[in-house]
Design goal:
Length: 229
């Protein structure tokens, strides 16, 4: 496990299912919870970049660990610099959460390794969550049997958050950091930034650091100065 342990530790602070703002994705959140706590043993979640898919997986791993399960996050970005053999024995986990599955598409060795891992995990009674930027059949996988297996459970498509949800996300996650973001400020930021949860959280990181350094409240004039708007 020495080569695999670091992969189980790539969880960012603050991302759990309790602070995931679903907006129109309530069914997706419920489906992820069902894999961890219920009868479903797998689910596939797909959607655009920075829509919160990684947040869901990190939250699912945390929830599983809180339930006493052995759970592991497997980000494609962490796996691809390694060799496919790193997946050997990963079926020992109760829950595996594979992020950005489309990045393995077209690599025969990785696809075969994932195919065999899936079979071993299911045979042992494990659970699997997978995210990608397209559905299993449209993700560009060369191995049809892998796509079929990934689609064997519920497949959820994530929808973008609407403006009100994005503003609420800024306020909720700001409060968690000790930042008071008024409605007009949240509206100003959401209307001028890339309209995705990931982009807003990156801006919130910048604002948090600069507000702390300058000892300023998060107001519209501060946001203009901090972000060059």
């Amino acid at each position: 496990m020495s080569a695999q342990l670091p992969l189980a530790l790539q969880l960012r602070e603050g991302n759990d299912l309790s602070n995931f703002l679903p907006g129109p994705n309530g069914a997706v959140l419920a489906g992820v919870r069902e894999v961890v706590l219920g009868d479903d043993r797998q689910a596939f979640v797909w959607g655009g970049a920075q829509q919160g898919k990684s947040h869901l997986l990190e939250g699912a791993v945390r929830l599983a660990q809180q339930q006493g399960m052995d759970a592991c996050l497997l980000p494609a970005s962490e796996l691809l610099p390694l060799v496919p053999a790193v997946l050997e024995s990963m079926e020992q986990f109760d829950l595996l959460a594979l992020d950005d599955c489309q990045r393995f598409a077209g690599d025969a060795a990785w696809e075969e390794a994932l195919f065999h891992l899936y079979n071993r995990l299911m045979a042992r009674g494990g659970r699997l969550l997978v995210t990608a930027d397209a559905s299993p059949t449209a993700a560009g996988l060369l191995l049809p049997d892998l796509a079929t297996r990934l689609a064997a459970g519920p497949v959820y498509r994530m929808s973008p958050l609407v403006d009100e949800d994005l503003q609420a996300l800024l306020q909720v996650r700001g409060r968690a950091r000790g930042l008071r973001i008024e409605q007009d400020v949240a509206h100003y930021i959401a209307m001028r930034s890339e309209r995705s949860p990931g982009a807003l959280m990156a801006l919130l990181d910048r604002l948090d650091r600069m507000a702390l350094a300058q000892q300023r409240s998060v107001t519209i004039p501060f946001v203009k100065d901090a972000l060059g708007w």
